[in-house]
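To close the chapter, one final illustration. This time we ask the reader to focus less on the individual chains and more on the assembly as a whole: which components sit near each other, and how the overall shape emerges from the parts.
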Amino acid sequence: MTGTPFADTRIMNTLVPGTGANIGMLEDYSTKLGDTSGKPGASKVSFHWQDADFPPVVPNNVTSAYNEEGGLPLAAFDHAVDLEIPEEVRSTYVGYSAGGSMLGTGEREGLDSTNIVHVAPAGTGHNVGGPEDTANPDANRYWIQTRDDPIKAAQKLGGGFHSRSLWEGGNPIEVMGATRLESGFTDPDAPSSLMKGHLDYFYPASTSALNITGVVDGSSVSLFVKDVEHTTYLGTKVVRSPIEDTPENYVNGNLKPITTASLEE
Amino acid sequence: MHRTRDTPRSLGRLPSILAVIVSGLVLAGCATLSPSNSQDSETTMTENPTDASRANFAAARERMEYILPLLQAEAATAGLDMPLERLAEISCLRPEIEAQQEQTSWIGQLAAVSTDSAQANAVVDAVSAALASEGWELTRDDDPSNDPYTPRYINYTKDGINVSAKYKVGVTDSVEVFARTQCTDHPRDHQMVRSTLDPGYGKSSKYYPDGE
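The assembled structure is written out below.
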């Protein structure tokens, strides 16, 4: 925990870690928490929550067991924090990878937050097939994920364990109506550093980390750069990613910020 | 409040062979969470491990230990105390890679909450002026004159170090100064260190020897 919950707290954020989180990774995840929490202040309290077992490796998570075992204590933690901070606090839960579906399961069990940030989640939560399955259907929902993150396989095929059903899957936009934010660059001024894969979302001052911080602080974020469909001279359709094709057009401040306030109206 | 629902019956009636196939597909997909396909984003921002770049990297600590306290003093003169949040060498490699020290960068950060936009802008101006007077090259200057929610952002570079200063408006407004070097490759026996100025210096750490 960074900061102290009290009557004047205005911001609370909690990070729920992913696959492989164990006691030996507390230093790493505490650093990740710091890199996405923004400036600590008297009115902010930040938590790294790890009060459950997490799957040591991905194959251990081909079941709903970790979601079910972690979801309830996570909801209980949220209730306990709620007793220490004002009701109008801007609260944000960030669920990463396996922790993403555990967080959704916690929402099903009563966790109530202003914002939910799905960071490359395994799914939306066991038996969570829409905002109506959560304690706060009106929560602002954000999703950050690289274009080639292999976690999308779990989102498509692991719905029976990490979402409501195998048939629906666990895509945070399709299932939860989330707003997708840009994962961008590990260095937002370096076009060669376009983020890929599953493991860099918390890299200091990366686009992804800055977007998480923007949600936590209620400041500004950058929206996902959508793919564009082109028609070839043969009449076939080709889908291209502008940020992958011309990353130099999206660095040095050219990923335009948008306020979270405008997204949360 | 418990609102757990039963798994849909339809799933319960699935032939077991389908479940095995699906599990296999999920495993196959997720097995690639390993770094093989995502290493590119790191290596592309890495300097070639030449002697010159290694020497430059070794000198980066000294330069950052000079410039960050200087910027801290300038911010204080402009009316804002900005604690040094971090000044350390960090790994650029995926967390599951054991030899974290084989590719690192130096980062440093000052940050403070500011409740006064005039003061915050004055701090960014003071940081900008100090960097310019020290011979740093301005590479970016975002002025959100028409949109108060667009962060005020400047960036300077010199000798392989980038320093940015940002004022952003949110539930709590803040000013941050962030410095970093490019990622640099090292031999396996390289030891990551953190500055004695780092607030965590001396605390237990599995990466830094000062905590032992």
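The mean pLDDT of chain A is 93. The beta strands of chain A are 11-16, 44-48, 90-96, 115-119, 140-144, 179-181, 220-222, 228-231, 237-240, 257-259. With these observations in hand, you are ready for the problems at the end of the chapter.
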